[in-house]
Amino acid sequence: MQSPTQSPPQSPAPIVAAGQPASGSAGTAPPVAAQPEGRGGDGLEARLAAVKGEMDARLALAAVAYEVNTAHIETPPVDWSRIGAPVAPAPTAPPGLAPPATPIAALLHRASLRLRTDGWCAGALVDEDGHLCAQGAIRRESGGDRHAEAQAMTVLLEAIRRRFGPRVESVPSFNDAWGNGREPTRMLEQAAILADARGI
Predict the structure, then answer these.
(1) Which of 105, 130, 141, 165 has its CA 20 to 30 A from that of 113?
(2) 23-41 residue pLDDT tens
(3) Quick one: how far is CA 86 from the chain centroid?
(4) Rounded to an integer, what distance in angstroms lies between the CA atom of residue 40 and that of residue 26?
């Protein structure tokens, strides 16, 4: 018979493998079983579809509100007779070519811009459409100064011969040898650089 002062016998502590905490020990939680991974892609697509639907509804509501709020505003009709044709921008220097300061260089530079603006032709100083050859552009930009025109033609012929060799007879023969004005215009620009380097 047990004495009334004796405490009841305690059950033995569970045996725990080394390195693993007891399930009832303080400060530790019982192990949680791993949860199966859900299909996150389906959930994301569903959420995106819901957000898209909500945004479409808001945009539709905003469009209706805009129509209602602006219905009372009177907009005068446009008078098209007062609106003229678009003005073509003034010719500008091609990239990397600054306008030269010396007179002959400036003349050659203006002539290259003139070809870009008015168009190029071969076989005539000016054709019936107003297109110019290289010499015609120089003559027009020289303003009747035949001395300046002759100097510009000399520098242009030298620039051409530096690029294409001494067999080029004259500026008109060089101009007429091309099917478009790209190379004559480029040589006018090169001549402007040459004249500017010489200070003329």
Answers:
(1) 165
(2) 444 444 445 444 444 444 5
(3) 23
(4) 36
Sign of CA pseudo-dihedral 28, 32, 37, 42: negative
Query: CA–CA separation, 94 vs 156, rounded Å?
Result: 18
Longest dimension (CA), the chain: 145
Reported pTM: 0.51
DSSP secondary structure letters along 130-169: S-B-HHHHHHHHHTT-HHHHHHHHHHHHHHHHHHH-TT--
CA atoms of 160 and 164, how far apart (whole Å): 6
Task: Give the number of other CB atoms < 10 A from CB of residue 189.
Answer: 21
Give rounded-to-5 percent helix, strand, coil for the chain: 50, 0, 50
Judged by DSSP in three states, 35 sits in coil
